[in-house]
Amino acid sequence: MTYEFSKIVTECQGNLALNKPAKQSSNYADSDYLAQKAVDGNTDGFDFSRTELKANQWWMVDLGEQYEVTNIELYNRNENRSRLQKVYILTSNYSSPSNPYLNSGEWTVRYYHHPPYGAIGNIILEEGVFVRHVAVLSSHDEGVTLAEVKVYVYRE
Ligand SMILES: [Ca+2]
Fold it and tell me: Which domains does the chain have, with CATH numbers?
């Protein structure tokens, strides 16, 4: 008889969000600031995603499968940092969740920051949070702009 065990993550797998499919609620004008800019591995604050300048815009990435995520790192842009305010970080373990919005049964708010005025940094999740999708939503009326989002499993 053969026993098969689920693979257990015992070491850091690197940034799980890197080059994963990302999308956002709107694209700023005809700009190049598409959602994928926030998962291209470049944390340069001059290379960023950007939605339209209005409230309740969001950005999200699909990690492809569920992970027990421990850390989410956000990098703001270099200029006009204060545009990124009233920031919610949400996660979902649904395979195809609806668009991120507050008070949805498919998304859980893991973090809220107001006002950040600068780099947002490293958010550490509690143990046992299984994540397939990570979203960033802002209720501020200047939209969501992100240089990079990184997602890690550090815990054994
Ligand atoms: Ca980037």
Answer: 22-152 (2.60.120.260)
